[in-house]
Amino acid sequence: MRYDIASKRLIEIGKEQILKWLLGIDVESAELIEEIPRETVSLRRSDFPLLVREKTGQERIVLIEFQTRWEADLPLRLIEYFVRFKRKYHLPVVPVVLLFKEHGGARDVYEDEAIKFSFRLVRMWELDGRELVESGDVRLLPFVPLTRCGREEVLEADRRIYNSDLERGVKSDLLTALAIFAGLKSEDLMRELFRRRRDIMIESPAYELIKREGFEEGKREGVQEGMLRDAREMVLEALEERFGIVPLRIAEVINGINERAVLKGLHRKAIRCASLEEFEEALREALK
User: Is-contact 212 223, C-beta < 8 A?
Assistant: First the structure.
């Protein structure tokens, strides 16, 4: 949720700059289409449909999605959005995905027996963080931690935002978003940024939402971790009951899984598979 909050605020603050950066569009106006996400639960907080008018007079719909991790059904979701907005507005529709975390399976084309669909996939980890810092556009600097960069570039982005001429409320939101995205690179770096700029971040509504989320998450984490621990133990116990001592390599992989749905599937496989080798193959498939 924290990444959704940060992403939405960045769209509100800097949608023109983001469109120029991602698509090279000189924007006359860009309007966030608020009524569309309310019509269907399939649109999420991290999906931002924009009605864009270029300085040439051309209009188009740009669908921007901020995606923390790659999901196999993401292209199908984009196809659904594409068709919905195409039918409603009868304008060119441009889907863009900003993918935060590296994934070898991420593809910008979907093709099956009936259709071929392509979209703009921005692999944030491939972008040069130093170039983004030097671009001079302060509203883009919160994205720096998601790029190929080190601690120095993130701290430089922090300094440039803090010393900019933007109004204080906008700076507080940009600094808060920067710290949130820095958490994907390093929890320690995120905490350092929050400590450095707490005096201004506390003015950001996003900061208050994240504090509240953190409190609620803290209460839930204990329960969730307990459920995960039980699910891991059920898989290991089923394997031990069927095949004897579980090899350490398998136990380590299972203990590193943090998704209950995956563990439930592995538990069923542990009960039904004919051999430990068959289970290992299922384990590899589940982690792809």
Answer: no
Let me know whether 145 and 30 are in one domain.
no
- Average pLDDT of the segment spanning 140-149: 97
Q: Quick check: pTM over 0.90? A: no
| Domain containing residue 233 | 224-286
CA-based nearest residue to 101, from 185, 197, 164, 44? 185
At 197, give phi and psi (nearest 5°).
-120, 25
Write phi, then psi, for 163 (nearest 5 degrees): -90, 5
* Boundary of a domain, candidates 145, 171, 203: 203
pLDDT for the residue 46: 57
Q: What is the pLDDT of residue 199?
A: 84
Q: What is the mean pLDDT of residues 127-133?
A: 96
Q: Of 169, 203, 237, which residue is a domain's last? A: 203
Name 64's bridge partners. 48, 96
- 213 with 2: CB under 8 angstroms? yes
Instruction: State how far the Cα of 252 lies from the Cα of 99, in Å rounded to an integer.
Output: 28
Q: Is residue 92 part of a domain?
A: yes
Determine, yes or no, domain membership for 217: no
Domain check: are 88 and 1 in the same one? yes
Residues 62-100: tens digit of each pLDDT:
999 999 989 888 999 999 999 999 999 999 999 999 999
CA distances 266 to 169, 219, 231, 284, Å, are 48, 28, 10, 11
Given a cut of 80, is residue 255 above it in pLDDT?
A: yes
- The answer to whether position 65 is within a domain reads yes
- Please give the residue that has the higher pLDDT: either 282 or 222: 282
> Rounded CA gap, 62 and 72, in Å?
22
